[in-house]
Description:
Blueprint: H1 2-8, H2 21-39, H3 44-57, E1 61-62, E2 74-79, E3 83-88, E4 98-104, E5 109-120, E6 123-131, E7 144-151, E8 157-162, H4 189-192, E9 200-203, H5 214-227, E10 237-243, E11 248-250, E12 256-259, H6 262-277, E13 284-290, H7 307-319, H8 323-328, E14 331-335, E15 338-339, E16 361-364, E17 368-369, H9 380-393, E18 397-399, E19 409-410, H10 414-418, E20 423-428, E21 430-432, E22 439-442, H11 443-458
Parallel strand pairs: 1-2, 4-13, 4-14, 14-20, 15-21, 16-18
Antiparallel strand pairs: 2-3, 3-13, 5-6, 5-10, 6-9, 7-8, 7-10, 11-12, 12-22, 16-20, 17-19, 21-22
The chain binds manganese (II) ion (2 copies).
One manganese (II) ion binds at residues 104, 263-264, 293, 336-337, 412.
Amino acid sequence: MDELRTKLFYEQKNGYDLIGTEERLAVEDYCKGYMEYLDNSRMEREAVVNAIALAEEQGFVAYKPGMALKAGDKIYKNNRGKALMLAVIGKKPLSEGAVIAGAHVDSPRIDLKQVTLYEQDEMAYFKTHYYGGIKKYQWVTIPLELHGAVVLKSGEVVPVVIGREKGEPKFVITDLLPHLAKDQMQKTLSEGFTGEGLNILLGSTPYADEGKDRVKLAVMSILNDMYGITEEDFLSAELAAVPGFDVCEVGLDRSLIGGYGHDDRVCAYAELKAIFDVKDPEKTCVCILADKEETGSDGVTGMQSAAFDCFMEDLCVEQGVSLRRCFENSFCLSADVSNAFDPLYPEVSEKRSDSKVNYGMAICKFTGSRGKGGTSDASAELVAYLRRLYEREGVVWQMAELGKVDQGGGGTIAKFMANRNIDTIDAGVPVLSMHAPFEVVGKFDCYMTYKGVLAAYADK
Ligand code: MN
Ligand code: MN
């Protein structure tokens, strides 16, 4: 009976039971690089700048339309400083398709409004407009840093980072003390904190003179000293408050990584490392770091933008190949995180189908909500291909579904790739506390996602 059971049943194993010492060391080594990348990439602009720096170390050069390209050439295209596309040209023509991996580098956060600075009762604040899907109560009374860019009237881009360096000040959104929270505690979690209530505390010292708004003036003059900006410059700025925790190992066994923005920089880094490590690929490999996924993938830097088609068309034109033919024969891993089964909240999950920490790269055949609404639903043929590939290449993976049926749902860039007539499937790292200021992932799954993307890039 045992033999028959082994033969007929599908059984999942904890990933740590499937790898040896050598691969355990590879997991640790890989995660060191990822933790450093994540720590310094708290906004899409920083994620792009850091990715370009890593890519240039690996011999990637900025692509210019009309550039003559041959197999093995490594190029990148920076889309407005907020999204990035990299490619390694394959031996086969693009008419046979490309192997694409697409992740996103934007994460939920607290954006500043354009008219943001104000003083109230001798305290200075920023007004904000949150970005992406957040549970607002998680963002109060935690250390925040200020990241982003101010674009001066002249067009000069002034990058802003305050709070990342040791010794720099942080910021905070305050909350009521429990002693006076009788009314607040009666509210639901979604009513307890409002969007307009998420105001960031900036300072409390008045400018040493007489007149109104003296604290605001003092704060503005510090910003003027630091960056040469005036209040009007906020109108053309993209600034955000992001969590001010350092990325760190979590747990006594150090098997987990805690930090802000694993969704989806954990997959972005996996793709980057994979495209750096692929050697002489048969098909052209493409790595996408997209923006605006958390707000629906709209806009010029989102995955619905023609920027991707434009880049791919340039490569196709150079080879005298039709873009549509290229897409028809391409394969895309939509590299995005999945919900990890959380033993503290089993009620929202269907245990057999949720992805689990330490069970490897999580492959999601479909996303969406209710009756699979809004999903691209990858074909069974595609799943079978990955089963073959990953068995051959020793990639530990698992099937994933986002919680119980009718419990909620979500989407990724997958459908926007699939709508281009590209065979696409979601795959990525399971995350605990997704979209929280401090998300948690398993090191093992980070490494296996890298290995999974590399296997796809390197496939003959
Ligand atoms: Mn995501
Ligand atoms: Mn997300």
